[in-house]
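Friendly challenge for the regulars: who can give me the structure tokens for this chain first? No prize, just bragging rights.
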Amino acid sequence: MDLKYIRENPEEVRRLLELRRCPAGIDSILALDAERRALAQERDGLRHEQKGISQAVAEAKRSGGDADAVMARARELSERVKAADAELASTEERLEELARHLPNVVHPSMTAEEEVIEEWGELPQFGFEPLAHWDLAEALDVVDFKAAAALSGSRFVVFRGAGARLERALINWFLDTHVRKNGYTELSMPVLARSQCLEGAGQLPHMAGEVYVMRDDELCLVPTSETTLANLHREQVLDAATLPRKYVTYSPCFRREAGSYGKDVRGMIRVHQFDKVELFRLTAPEQSYQALEEMLAEATALARELGLPYRVKRLAAWDIAYQAAKTYDIEAWSAGGKRWLEVSSVSNCEDYQTRRTDTRARGADGRLFHPHALNGSALALPRVFVAIIENFQQADGSVRIPEVLRPYLDGLERIS
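First reply, four minutes later:
Bragging rights claimed.
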């Protein structure tokens, strides 16, 4: 969060933190910021005097006068400036550490309650009792939960045969759609990232309990490819004329799900490793909320083309990620589970991530600014897989393949 914004709008920041149900406070930040500004003023005064002394030393040497006293004062000022710089740097480091724990601001449209803003499609009707995916997938031999548990423990999945092909078809179709139709540049990103990348993306320190950390290296498995995408232009200055930057990538994602003990233990609703196609944009600040609506439309279009009934929710302010200022969730209907499953979150993080990663852009007027960063799942697996096999199951136990995926499956129309 911008320190200038905190300093100039303390009551508004307190209101936003309360709206987010965030326990963090700003009193210590305001006090430390005042201390920092006082130290900076003192240091600048010493530097100004130091500059005058340097001129006095030069003048004394030119005139043949006694420069010893003046030089002694110059040395004293030099030491005091060094000490002031060190103290100021230490104060700024402490201030930055406190600020890192604050979430983003929230958009004015965000409230304490979520709101369903769009619904599409008719819920499927069956002349039989539809099976949940854990029974249906094993009956079709497209998923092997027992093998996954033997290999890695609970909350992992082995896709088999037509199931693995369906998973791959979804990933390829998502990527092709965003590259060919929506104008994104495809990237292939690492799934291991330095902790500073998670900090830059706004996922650390508050998500520390959810992240898998390497034992012998200072690396983490990414909880989402947003992590690396948000750091792609870290400490760079971009030409504003090249905005928006639109990227799409596929990656496996890894989450410990530490706080979900006992929740969704059957099947693959909540797993430790899952695949996702991620959209990411860097835009000029004045264009970011139009971009958010565009990205939402790109994600919902995929659900419509698959024929999956869905709804869109604008999340409550307390329910969005720390780094987000506004978030929409897309939920697909699960006929066997008789519930809505989140298959995408689309968020505008404004300048929160670009400020943390020091990603800037230079406008035509020469001024530097932090572009706005947006991200969205389009879409996340395996919940889309779940929605497909549950919603399109047939009375004979087969599953009908959505038409848009059949070219990726050599024309396969059903999994039997």
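The longest strand covers residues 273-283. Residues 2 and 49 are 32 Å apart (CA to CA). Your move, everyone else.
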